[in-house]
Amino acid sequence: MNDMVAPKFDRTVEDLGNIVELGHVNVLVPDQALATAYYIMGLGLTRDPYLMAGLENMWVNVGRGQFHLPTRGTQVVRGTTALVMPDLEALLQRLSYAKKFLEGTQFSYREAGDTVETTCPWGNRIRVHAPDPARFGPMRVGMPYVEFDVPVGTDLAAIAKFYKEILGGISGVASDSRGPYAWASCSGECKVTYRESPTQHPEYDGHHIQITLADFSGPHKKLLERGLIAEESDQHQYRFLDIVDVDTNKPIFRIEHETRSMRHPMFNRVFVNRNPDMSNRNFVPGYEVGLFALN
């Protein structure tokens, strides 16, 4: 018999819950040239070369996630989308260069502690973090969370309960230096969070996030029974709009969830990600692809 003490592990850390992917954030944009200057030139992300490569829409890759940017209006996320990028100094240089192409818009950027906070030409807020294994695991390029602003007094525990009991996710309420927030895991790398904010809360304009579920039909049945299904998209997808109090069915917060199954043809699709610091002047074969793993 082995006399060595068996190591103790927290096995719950490995649990994913039913939500296995935070796939994309979708906002309408009115101008692809400005979107290119911001998302591609400034942030250093990669336009998907295969899908939505025309003038009516553009998909922008960021690690295993995407921004979807249909070209037919303007939408602004009521909160902040977070990114992880490997070199914040290089990011600041790119944003500085892109500034001349974005004059007269809401574009801005600034260093904020250990992050870079930037605003797109139409007001979408993006917070960029450096890789941090303690917070983001091995993510080097990606979208670790989307943080929604909710009115002061919102029942955060009820939001967490919705994700757990209706969607089968892993969720809870936590607190940090900025106060309490509700969170729900959306894969091993990503989550959605809901944080109280005293700022003015605009009317919902139709922007959405996309998630993927392992148990696709169970949540659908619960949402359908509550009258919450907003669209029966196709065999692999449905949408709902409202997060509700599970006990009363009273709406708490509106954000459309494009909800997909793991049988969706695009689940786990491999995205092209470039190295934004590579140019024709410093080109080295084999280094034009973005690097994901931490050294």
Overview of the molecule:
With 295 residues, this protein is of the alpha+beta class. The chain has a single domain (21-261), classed as 2,3-Dihydroxybiphenyl 1,2-Dioxygenase, domain 1. Helices cover 15% and strands 35% of the residues. It has an eight-stranded mixed sheet, covered by helices on one side. An eight-stranded mixed sheet has the order 6-7-8-5-9-12-11-10. It starts with 18 loop residues before the first strand and ends in a 34-residue tail after the last strand.
Topology:
Elements: E1 19-26, H1 32-42, E2 46-47, E3 57-62, E4 65-70, E5 79-84, H2 88-98, E6 108-112, E7 115-119, E8 125-129, H3 133-136, E9 142-151, H4 156-165, E10 171-176, E11 179-185, E12 191-197, E13 208-213, H5 217-225, E14 229-234, E15 237-244, E16 251-261
Helix pairs in contact: 1-2
Question: What key attributes describe this structure?
Answer:
5 helices, globular, 2,3-Dihydroxybiphenyl 1,2-Dioxygenase, domain 1, 15% helix, 295 residues, eight-stranded mixed sheet, single chain, alpha+beta, 16 strands
Strand order of the largest sheet: 2-3-4-1-13-16-15-14
Low-confidence stretches: none
Number of strands: 16
How many domains in all? 1
Q: First CA to last CA: what distance?
A: 39 Å
